[in-house]
Task: structure prediction
Amino acid sequence: MTATSTKSRGPANGRRKATALSESAEARTPSGRYPAHVWVKTHSAKTFALTEAPPADVPRATGIFPRPVWDNPVSSTSTASVPDPSLRLKEQDYTDEIGSAPDEETVERQAVGPLDNREIYRIVRAVATAHSGTDLYSAVMPQESFGLCFGIVLFSQASGHLGKVLQLMQRRDDTSFRQTFGASSDELLTVTNAATREAHLAPVGGDDLSSAAWIQRFKNAGAVAAFQAAQNEQAIEGLFRPILRVAGELGINTDRSLALVYDRVITRGVGGALRWLIHAVGPLRTSEQRISALAAVGFDDLKDFQSSTGWVPATGIFGPETHAALVGALRRADATLLPTPCDYISRMVEAAEGPAKKRLAQLRDSDQFEDAVYALGDQ
Result:
């Protein structure tokens, strides 16, 4: 039976024969949602080009082909430029096989070990470049409402971190401390370590710390080796280590992913950074997800779960620490698929705005990291 009529689309009795480029050519039998004109280029023994309008009795394509192939003809007289031949070359690893090649197999990266101070410092130093620049330990930046910001990660006066650094400096080398900061050294320690944010910003020796005289003293302090070590200690113990428990529970455990979190700490503080992190990338986004997650790890009461962790306050409030702890419990129970460090990096960059977005993107693309995986454990 020849394809002289296309009123019937599917094969009624056995295989149909259709004339394609010649009357003897046999077309594959169309079936299902593929109409006959998709398979053969002719409606009858009389051929017509795809650039011509179809005969009136050719059925219109339906299903996954919402329009017949000739509705968008490519004219043989097209004036379009000829593509660069190099753009049309097939790639050398072209294959239709789905199985992975040996060198493409996914291998879970093993932890390189605990995150020690040397590794933390390496991360801190890489992140600090965008904040303290080439001045590093001698960097100074007065900022409205924050007072004087000083040092490798710009410890701020208002937050109290500047006061803590100054205490460490004095303990490491009291003689150099008094020589550097002069007669008001004791008052400097008292003011910057006061009980409130407002008290931190009080003048010292009659001048704000943003005055030219104080700025020069702080610049000089940045050149003292003992004071540089004090800055490293505060950068690690005061700003980096406090984020490790939450980061580790979430699964943020590579040098690169931790660097992005640390950048947020420098500009938002520990609490502000962790709240931003959970809001931006926390995987348990809805109450339904949280209830399901609790059930998956064997709890139906939030306070009971919090008490079981040994470190999250049993408040009954689903805060950043609880969010992280529940994700960690899910991860240990292999209860569900959770974000990888790379996922978190992408989400952090996407969520950031303004200068922060630029800094995080630079850290994401930096060659200073090895994407080393750390066994964070209980930090």
